[in-house]
Design a protein that fits this description.
154 residues, 21% helix, six-stranded mixed sheet, alpha+beta
Length: 154
């Protein structure tokens, strides 16, 4: 008997994002950052504000206690930067990166199971977001913390 669908859901989300053509030029990272190359990154299970990689709640879905519903939020973070100081370009780029995530989670003829994270959950979708912008020695940076909400039956 499964205790949680979180591990399968995170693994499937990573696989979907790594296979998405619109994210081919982005580095999709499992968990917190380490020394990485590239100026377009997408972190799954981490955001710079700290907190939980995944927050979950479970409850019985009906009388009889045979199955449970599990609702959980996977923390994610998209980050882009360049060597110049044009913040508008980076802001547009980070929203484009997150739009590619949202598109990858939508059902299509080619990927009918994407919203279920290939069967790991009943449904998933992108919900909250929090934009940050700053300048450093590497130029303009924009980051967007966002959440992928999921519902599963265990």
């Amino acid at each position: 008997m499964l205790t949680s669908r979180v591990p399968a859901a995170v693994d499937s989300l990573l696989a979907i994002l790594r296979a998405a053509p619109a994210l081919a030029d982005a580095l999709v990272v499992d968990g917190p950052p380490i020394q990485l190359a590239g100026n377009r990154r997408l972190y799954v299970g981490w955001n710079p504000e700290g907190g939980s990689a995944v927050n979950l709640v479970q409850d019985f879905n009906a009388a009889g206690a045979r199955t449970r519903d599990e609702d959980f939020a996977i923390s994610c973070y998209a980050e882009v930067w360049s060597g110049d100081t044009d913040m508008q370009v980076q802001r547009t780029a980070v929203f484009s990166l997150v739009a590619a995530v949202e598109t990858a989670l939508r059902a299509t003829d080619a990927a009918r199971e994407a919203p279920t994270l290939n069967g790991a959950v009943l449904w998933s979708h992108l919900t909250t977001g929090d934009l940050s912008q700053f300048q450093d020695q590497e130029g303009a940076r924009a980051g967007l913390a966002f959440t992928v909400m999921c519902r599963a039956r265990i």
